[in-house]
Amino acid sequence: MRVLSLFDGISCGQVAFERAGIHIDSYYASEINKYAISITQKNYPKTIQIGDVTTVNGLKDIDILIGGSPCQGFSFAGKQLNFIDPRSRLFFDYVRVLEEVKPKYFLFENVKMKKEYTDIITKHLGVEPIEINSALVSAQNRKRLYWSNIQGITQPKDKGILLQDIIHENTDYADWRELSRYIVPFDKTLQILDKEVQRGKIGYFGKDSRANRVYYIHGKAVTLCGEAGGGAAKMEQYFFGCITPDRVNKRQNGQRFNEGNKFYTLTAQDQHGVLTEGYIRKITPIECERLQTLPDNYTEGVSNTQRYKMLGNGWTVDVIAHILKMLK
């Protein structure tokens, strides 16, 4: 199969084809981020990189076009600028290439958005989207819309994966470092735990928002997202402290999740963490890879900052593989 992938990122699409058992004869990737390209070429050195999506033309005999244009303008976690945002307007380059290449199949992915914007995409692609939550196949709550002319797409079977199933045990002690300015009294810590445990949240860092809350690991994770512009926090710079019953002065900070929860949508500006055996720390790059159902260390070779960002921009591989299996 000859594949053209626009906004290819770290080539989650290639992993999905491989996992779906579909042989790729040629894989053309349109991507401009040098870090993402380096990860793709490390894992799939035969990938044919073709550069900026705005200059893609002249490709023939493509069997399937895949892609998901940058979602920050549409995302409920972003500024919701929608088609005014130049990143979201890249969708029309997907439409242009689709009309020029005329592949047998196409697949387009994007965030859940307002109906008026969903309808614009539907009008241009000619098919209604199907909404799939990555929580069915991973430990991450990630609702996405998929437009495709692939027939028979269904909801994946719920695998029942929770945060506790993807926790990486081999983390350095440094990952548990304290941020002393967020110390709270021990009795207040207990009050927070008693008050919030039924809702899953046990505390927050700075402003009490979804991006900064603490959750238990017996559920799902937040959605990974790659937006990291403006005053966004750098995830790798935040350390998440301990809740230790034998210490009088301890505090809670950051977004934390108990291993039995589903993780919410991860974003690069959030300070995500997990609570396990009484300690709290940030989510590791390997755990982020597992949230996206990628192989461990798939993104190894660049800084953690870039790993978090690229993983947030990527696809949940097992969702894409589920869709692609309909081609067999």
UniProtKB/TrEMBL annotation:
SUPFAM superfamilies: S-adenosyl-L-methionine-dependent methyltransferases
EC number: 2.1.1.37
Transmembrane region(s): none
Gene3D superfamilies: DNA Methylase, subunit A, domain 2, Vaccinia Virus protein VP39
Gene Ontology BP annotations: methylation
Tree of life domain: Archaea
Classification via Pfam families: DNA_methylase
Swiss-Prot/TrEMBL keywords: Methyltransferase, S-adenosyl-L-methionine, Transferase
Gene Ontology molecular-function annotations: DNA (cytosine-5-)-methyltransferase activity
Residues spanning the signal sequence: none
Protein name: DNA (cytosine-5-)-methyltransferase
Species per Swiss-Prot/TrEMBL record: Candidatus Methanofastidiosum methylothiophilum
Taxonomy of the source species: Archaea, Methanobacteriati, Methanobacteriota, Stenosarchaea group, Candidatus Methanofastidiosia
